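WARN retry 2 of 3 for item q-0093 after timeout on previous attempt; input resubmitted unchanged.
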Amino acid sequence: MKDLRINRRAFIKQAVMGSLGAAAYVSSGLRMVSAAATPGSDYKALVCVFLYGGNDSFNMFTPMTGASRQAYEDVRGNLARPLGLEVTPANMTFADGIAFDQNMSALRTLFNNGALAIQGNVGPLVVPMYNSDGSVNSNAKKPHGLYAHDGSQENWMRGADLNQKMGGWGGRMLDSWHNNNAVQEANFIRDISLGGTNTWQQGIRYSPYATNSDGFIETSFLTTGTGLLSTRTNAINNYRTNFSTSNRLQQAFFDLYSSAIDNNASLATQIAAVADSTVTYPATNLGTQLNTVAKLIEIGRANGVGRQIFFVGLGGFDTHKNQVNTHPALLTTLSEALASFYQDTQVKGIENEVTTFTMSEFGRSLRSNGDGTDHGWAGHQLILGGSVDGNKIYGDMPEQTVDFNLIPTTANEQMFASLATWFGVSQPDINELFPNLHQFNNDINYFRS
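OK item q-0093 returned
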């Protein structure tokens, strides 16, 4: 399980990395704000919620009755969930019914209200794995890194096989939007991570500005404490005000360090100026991250940045053990945090400008290992927002009758293409962003026209 906590040493490292895209912001300062587009005009934000560990998403949606329910209970054994909260998708019928897990009542309400869609049975693919007659093509090329945490996370974040693209599809998407809209400044607040460093937000022009769940790092440790405090404080102050060198590497590090400190201070000031939400977020780390994202969206809209991407994370889904207890609790955390965030965007009247979606490195084996599940391939993902054509299931929701894991019937690049199109990326750039998309139908559209 990925540790999402950020310590002081990690802060310095992440802040320096994140400031790669921040120099322009620091150099132009407030003048950039006054020269920007009309606040709130043509604004969109894409929020990625990464479920670290590999979510057993086939236990998020389960059959209600009949042969489907019996098959599910036979395969899942001790991991089978109790009867859930039934839904009736607008575009698909299930003879034996289908239900959200009983711990996901908040998201079930959003699904019924049309704000939430489900992408079923999706995963990384380079070519279709099924023949036209429905049989599995055992000779089809598979992506690299399957079943491994790091390799599969990279597949999802890159939107490409491991040897095909540098950086992540979020960063490349932001680069594309930037290049096609005559944007002059690479403002770091367009690309912020509250869930740790990640590949998804890494582009050429943009790098994720990584911070903690509150949106800024407390830096008082630089100038307070015991022992050699005055020596440390004087050294820091002297370094920031008097440093001079002809060495380019030293100068580059100094610039990055300084901009990271300045950007952190700027964010702390701006976040403090945003009024607290009237929506009560759950007291979880994911709830805190999304609450901060909502504030950063207000800041982004006020600064007229046009587009923002955010990355938040929830760990603990690598449920080889004790899944019966841990997974339902994780679903509660996910459901309540997403519902609060969506409600917050509604209160602020920006729900149509914000789309949130989940990624997880893989689904899990359907068969129980006695105490949990092992690494699989396909899984289900969620797409949430006011522009989403919800109350629908896109792709397939296969019955859980196989004995190990399910093969994707939708490529994750198809899913990403729809999100990127909504974000404003042109079709030629979509084809460039996702190198395997031409192998599949590019006809998925999660959004209302």
